[in-house]
Amino acid sequence: MSKSIEQLILALSKEYEIYKGYLELAKKKRDVIVEGNIKELEKITNDEQSIVVSMGKIDEIRTAIIGNILFEQKIDWVENITELASSIKDPERTEILSLKDKLGSILKKIKEVNDLNTKLLEQSLEYIEFNVNLLTNAEVKGNTYGSKADENELKHRPNIFDAKV
């Protein structure tokens, strides 16, 4: 096994571990959104940003390693890692393809959790907007008796806020 192929396997394994950690964080984020814990949500968002930086670094490393493999194997260009693996002998080819499948699977799970988190956040924002509208545009029918017994008269409730959010 060439050193570059060994490095590619290590890089793909590391990339999988990073995405696995991101998936756990995304699931935790879902729970925090449901609980409405804003402080924990901020912390998770910060953690996500550092993971995204790690993803970018490992992506650069993987790209450089693939460049080395292409140079060593005298290949001009490949479309994807599956095509690259076709030029590598077993058992490394099988290991690379297995890691590629694991990465594809975990990315699909991350997308599902992120889509759910997006919907939960949109619902929370709609709920907040609904409440703000309730507080700023509330009009009530009179339900008390005045000195002239004008209970059906429309009365305006004073707004809590001066402007709509």
Automatic annotation (TrEMBL):
It holds the Pfam family FlgN. Keywords: Cell projection, Cilium, Flagellum. InterPro entries: FlgN-like. It comes from the Bacteria. This is Flagellar protein FlgN.
